[in-house]
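The records we work with from here on pair a chain with its fold. These numbers are not coordinates but entries in a learned vocabulary of local backbone shapes. To see the layout at work, look at the sequence and tokens printed below.
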Amino acid sequence: MATLVLTAVGGLFGPVGAAIGALAGQAVDAQIFKPAGRQGPRVADLRVQTSSFGTQVPLLFGAMRVAGTVIWATDLKESAETSGGKGRPSVTTYSYSASFAVVLSARSIGRVGRIWADGNLLRGEAGDFKTGIAAFRLHDGNADQPVDPLIAADRGAGVTSAHRGLAYAVFEGLDLADFGNRIPSLTFEVFADEGAVAVDGIAAVLVRDGTIGFAGEAPVLAGYAAAGDSAGEAMQPLIDGHDLLLRNDAGDMVLTQGVAIERMLRREEDLGWARGEALAGREMVRGPVEAVPRRLSVRHYDPERDYQAGAQSAERQGAGWEQAQVDLPATLGGASAKMRAADLLRRRMLGRRSASVACGWAALALKPGDVVALEGEGGGWRIESSEWEGMAVRLGLVAVPTRPLVAPGAADGGSGIHQPDRLVGATHLALIETPQLFDALADRPQLFVAASGGSSAWRGGAVLLRVEDGGYAPLGSVRRGPVMGQTLSVLERGTSLLFDDGASVEVQLFDADAVLAPASDAALLNGANACMIGEEVVQFGTASPSGPGQWRLGRLLRGRRGSEKRMAGHAVGETFLLLTADALLPVTDGRAVAGCLVEIAAQGLGDATPAEADRTVDGRALVPPSPVHLRLSGSAGEGVTARWIRRSRLGWGWIDGVDAPLAEEGEAYLVAIRAGDNLIRSEEIFAPVWSYSPGAIADDLVVADGTPLNLIVRQRGTHGLGSPALASLSF
């Protein structure tokens, strides 16, 4: 179609000029439009990241999502991190990072918005990265952009190109742990221009000289990716997607969809003879409806679905089964794409009607793209070509719509995959000490670092331990944090002997998307849903959402693993932490000993300054829990016998007929009699029974001088005395 138009432009200069103009038109056509049989740009082309030599880089306009082309990369950088040691298995974890550059556009751009890696959001709209990176630099493609210093350091300052005219992004030290230790496939949200871009503006850039305009109201696109072996090939999707013509206006190239003028081509003006030769004055042709696609689809990039490729269709009634597809590598919403499909189908339906009219010299004033009326024929007729024929002007016309298109109805672009853009947020840090939690008997305090973020975008952070000289030494890193939060209500004191259905506690999770699940009684008895609330180990059987990130926990098991004495004194704002072994970082440094102050710091991607935490170690995991079922029998005159049942740091599963393992080097107890704060009597024994003779009772009552006596029993463990069991003596 474009060749006919340009040939007609030459024909405006007379019979000889028509021949010369036709040749000139074809020469220009060969420069602007693609050779016959070549494939134009496909919508899917922008989705695949490449690094092949000779790969074409598109010219981006407006807002687009593009994969780009890798033009430089370093080898992977390996880092090793060793954990464990000092009696624990030593585990070395390797991590990798890479630096590389990706070309985005063959013309300058304004900025880059979001970035996706393997389909997952890597950089948010606010410019925050969801994965660790040392630095990110964008070179916008301006004519004066400098050489990137990292590439220059690798390749040599004297031989490194600044890539002026190419917009590209440089990633320095991108952590590859989330991507299988390889450079991921990246796509970029690129804003090449501030706002939408008119079709003639795009065309002017593509032909380089800025001489292409638009006759009429130019279509506007939110974004466009131009690619091809020629300017014409890059423009072809615009022409096909909007049914455009290219014509000459006073020496300038102009695109048009059709310009309505006040001109009626009357039958009486048709020429039947010229230079004594008979002419076909007017020929009318109506093509079959089967020649028009039954369904026409427009493929596009949908900004409402994170620029994913979409397709919107329009259908007609009647015979025929042919389907057609128009690839428009442009940013269009679903409704706009559906309107475009409906408009193109309407134009093809009307375009079945064509006319050839022989006119006099007055028709030289008419230009291709002008929309005229034909006497006796309804609607508008766009001039497609103008040629000399025996001293007459032969006009080729096609019927075109003259009324605005009625909206074809709602467009459904599908649900797609929409990546939530959540800020990484600050790191929430806790340094916790637990009783013996796991099957392996502890020989050092159980001290753990718990770190979590304010959203699911948090990807961990580095943890440091303060050392003797006041500085910090690396302790390790947390990749995925446990579920953390804080209490919104006070956990009242309860019993550790039964399921507690009367008490409940409400917690606010730091990550509002985190979920707490209920557990059956059988699962609870097997250790499910263990958490720390303050310093107490608790299990919860029910978890009911009560607001964004808020949960009410019930059917509680209290004072687990010997933490009964920490059941009192709860308050609002205490740390809530789901005890997940693989999400906690153990502190195995030699400073983690009973009585020492341990200080830590952690910093993640969202932290301007490190988060800090500290605590004094008490070694609760190293000592036995308190004895239970302490019972007294007898009297002051007969003597008193005390009996109890020991517990163990191991063997928390209740197995009938089997005692819990001792888990200590030997069985021993320290029994004491106190009157208030005064120690009156103490004795070490080696069985869970003790006799308090009448004489000893009489002597102690004298010393107590009326102060009630208390019996305290503590098991002596390998590393120290356990928690006490207490009974009052009423004499």
Summary: Residues 15-32 form the longest helix (18 residues). The longest strand covers residues 88-105. Helices lie at 2-11, 15-32, 149-155, 199-206, 231-242, 334-350, 521-525, 694-704. The two ends are 115 Å apart (CA to CA).
